[in-house]
Design goal:
single chain; 361 residues; alpha+beta; Heat Shock Protein 90; 2 domains; five-stranded mixed beta sheet; two-stranded antiparallel sheet; 8 helices; 9 strands
Amino acid sequence: MKPAWYSKKWVIVLLHAAAWITLFSLPFLLRRSYNDKPEQNHEEISAARAALMYVCTNAFWIGFFYLNALLLVPRLLNKNKYWQYVSSLLSIFTIIVFIQAALFIYFRNPPHFGISNHILFNLFLFLFFLASSIAYRLISDKTKADRIAKEKENENLKTELSLLRSQASPHFMFNVLNNMVALARKKSDQLEPSLIKLSSLMRYMVYEADEDTVSLEKEVEYLQSYIDLQQQRVGKNVKISTCFENIENGHAIEPMLLIPFVENAFKHGTGFVSINKVEGSDLVLYNIAEINIKLTVEKSILKFSVQNRYNEDSTEPKDKTSGVGLSNVKRRLNLLYNKNHTLLIEKKDGWFTVSLQLTMH
């Protein structure tokens, strides 16, 4: 994963430098000037010494900030060594007070030096930089932990998606190979073109399905080839209607995302459904199997629906693999599109209907 620009070292160094410059420039930016007259030479020298002392003292506070954030907090405070941490802070504070006093006396040379006021003034600064460094360390650790957790989550998602996709491929192959066996047994002339289509499907599965996304056109070609193979198997026993509209717009989609819905329709919708109707004085029994597949794109919104008739009174034993494809695709949709999709599955009036709507990449 490519790191964000703000996590690069040189950017962090520049941000820290800008923050320190801004902080220590505030007294000069906020100070009012009441005397616009040119300063005397000795005043200029005094101002220069004061500025030098200001830089030196602030350098000690910056050093304490990073010493506490990068060394004391992770090695002592985070490891519950509280007494050692407090002792270290007291020692550092004592050292800073003496050094600041020495710098003040050297640069300012005051006639009187109040040690109590000096300690109190530095105590407030010490507590300010102590709290700031601890907060900085906590925020930094939290950000790093969140980033690591996010990376682990992404890796887990990739692993899970790969697993789901690997489960879908064999399931599809079992169905197609069964179709080939049926054609071979019938010695159908459609076996050779079917094998050619199967070869193109396998090429798609091997070379395209490993990509994160594929063009919608390729996915639709894959669906159409699969439908053609199934149409050859069922012949005229099943009425199949397909409609693919507005797909040539450069949209991308997760590979093999739609095929489980079509597989499910052919698996459970090719049996005959008995419908009793009265025509005149006679009771007529109609045997109808029908599958309707429709895919349209409107402003990057994909609308996909699959309908198949089913027999509510069927006593056909449940296949152990039934629902494997649908459960996998539901999980993949939740992982990949989250709130950017809606999936509705319903059984009503002898129709099993799947309606999917999602925002494409």
